[in-house]
Amino acid sequence: MDSADKWQSLGAPEGRVEIVDYGPAWPRIFEREAAAIFEACRPWVTDVHHIGSTAVPGLAAKPILDVMPVVSSPVEGLGVVSRVSALGYRYRGENGIAGRFYFDRAVDGRTVAHVHMLPTGHPEIRRMLVFRDYVRTHRKAARDYARLKRELASRYGDDPRAYTDAKADFIHRAIDAATHQPASPEAELS
Question: Which of 39, 62, 94, 127 is the most buried (most CB within 10 A)?
Fold first, then answer.
């Protein structure tokens, strides 16, 4: 499978926010990328997680795969930047999160993937996984999140930063609910 075919169900024009229905091919694409990152960065990358909305079955999402490799230390993270770049990703530095090694990938002028490489113990790892797992297991929260994302994309389609900022309150409330309340799968965010 060539690069363009592999990414066919993913991609958005750079600087544009689009929300699409869930793509059933996304988990397979993630598995291929995770395997490639593991192979290129062994033994420094200790885990690779599928995060973000493309990691939640059935959830509408920006068609951009979010991948979170965990590297054993910040020093080793610097050491594998060239290896991840050799896979076709552009290194973007921390991109607003201290200690993160951030990459993106474009195919045919469309952004298809973001890689958020973090060192073991970084607080963003837990935050991203808690949010993903909460939305995976709380159907009402997933429906509410999809509705919010579609509304925000229509309002901020040309402003990805404003779109991301506008989702922050929902994400914080979901993480708070997941970490401070024994909630059932149908629990509501208040």
Answer: 62
Tell me the C-alpha distance between 59 and 106, whole Å. 23
**pLDDT 10s digits, 23-63:** 999 999 999 999 999 999 999 999 999 999 999 999 999 99
3-state SS, one letter per residue, for the chain? CCHHHHCCCCCEECCCCCCECCCCCHHHHHHHHHHHHHHHHCCCEEEEEEECHHHCCCCCECCCEEEEEEECCHHHHHHHHHHHHHCCCEECCCCCCCCCEEEEEEECCEEEEEEEEEECCCHHHHHHHHHHHHHHHCHHHHHHHHHHHHHHHHHHCCCHHHHHHHHHHHHHHHHHHHHHCCCCCCCCCC
Q: What is the pTM of this model?
A: 0.89
Residues in the chain: 190
